[in-house]
Design a protein that fits this description.
Elements lengths: L1 E4 L5 H14 L11 H8 L6 E7 L2 E10 L8 E8 L8 H15 L4 E8 L3 H9 L3 E12 L3 E11 L1
Helix pairs in contact: 1-2
Length: 161
């Protein structure tokens, strides 16, 4: 597996991943009715942010976006988001993307990385982030309407560098 910078031609494989994850309404607080163009505008980061893909040959296994969490006085903290294709889950793709984002942020001098809305029932992601040094700073109870579990919390997670 190789992680590389996103190129425009990758969208044909990234879009189905984003569409599936968002429309499942289980792990991301994004509007499931977003159009393809709205999704591309939301997912593909402009510099100084970065969008990457994890590939095996020509096949996109997952994608991540990373950048500054907030402008101005908050610009010393990074953020990132990750999505993995259904058929590639459980194979280390999310772990590799998370490591890549952490390395990217450290190399750019960020003081830490913050995740603003990690769905608490997404235990695979929560545990992955904990293994990489993130801690849950707080949880907003019932802030995410999960399609089968009902209202679950959204974690604020942080990793200081």
């Amino acid at each position: 597996m190789l992680i590389r910078e996103y190129a425009g031609g990758d969208w044909a494989q990234v879009w189905p991943i984003v569409r599936e994850v968002v429309r499942a309404e289980e792990t991301f607080p994004y509007d499931p009715g977003m159009t393809e163009e709205q999704s591309r505008g939301m997912w593909v980061e402009a510099p100084p942010g970065l969008t990457v893909v994890a590939v095996d040959g020509d096949r996109v296994l997952g994608t991540a976006k990373m950048g500054t969490n907030r402008p101005g006085p908050g610009s010393h903290v990074a953020t990132a988001s990750f999505m993995v294709a259904a058929g590639a889950r459980g194979q280390g793709v999310g772990t590799a993307l998370c490591r890549h984002a952490l390395d990217w942020a450290r190399a750019r001098g960020y003081a830490g990385m913050q995740f603003n809305a990690v769905v608490e029932s997404n235990t695979t992601a929560v545990e992955l982030y904990r293994r990489h040094g993130f801690e849950v700073l707080g949880t907003v109870p019932g802030a995410f309407a999960h399609p089968t579990l009902g209202r679950v919390g959204l974690h604020l997670m942080y990793h200081a560098f």
